[in-house]
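Protein in question kept underneath.
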Amino acid sequence: MTYALSWPLQQAIYGLMSQDAACAAWFADRVYDAPPHFQAEAAPDGLYLTFGDEDVTDWSTADDAGAEHLVRITVHAPRQGFAEAKQAASAVSDAILGGDLAPSRGHVVNARFVDARTRRRDDDGLRQIEMRFRLRLEDTA
């Protein structure tokens, strides 16, 4: 097993969100490693995306090191409805599963959508969609 692919994978997902036309149209430069600290009255005009928790397990063979990454990505909506958030989440899913994910180390052998959860935030009622993807990578180093 190797955990060395985690950061290159996150960088690849980040890059994909800015290079994919549909994702860039929804998020522009609003892709964050952690939720930004917005004041409730100064919420962003557009949707934004954050990286969430990640679970990594061994996916090695007798000859090659590899890891399976269960990554969480959350779309945050600045308004009350789910319509925009669901469309943006669809663009994220299409981009990640589209086969263009190219980490600087390792390569993606398999990408799968696991599930998604929609919810209203307790503090302000705004919407979020958390998606989970299972990405299997082999190390090329």
